[in-house]
Amino acid sequence: QVQLVESGGGLVQPGGSLRLSCAASENIFRFAFMGWYRQAPGKERELVAVMSSGGTTNYANSVKGRFTISRDNANNMVYLQMNSLKPEDTAVYYCNAKRPLYEYWGQGTQVTVSS
User: Fold this and answer.
1) What is the pLDDT of residue 29?
2) What is the CA angle 39-36-53, rounded to 5?
């Protein structure tokens, strides 16, 4: 069973930065896509950023230019650098890994942007 463990969430003021980390229990090259989703209270889970095994990235329009997804293949880690955070970025952030017929989720990490 694949395990994804997120860390790095917390409380930050508007305009601040956080870096989320996702540790995978197996080689991340085995996944076609790895990414980050978020879910705010009362809203549906939405895609934040995704990276293919080939390195192609895609971002939600709301985070383009502020968030960056990256990976450390040697350590099976995926990161989400979040800059210029806004109150509307407040949500639980989930790490996601996809391969044909299977999809895996982490337990989530809370990000709260508030003064």
Assistant:
1) 85
2) 155
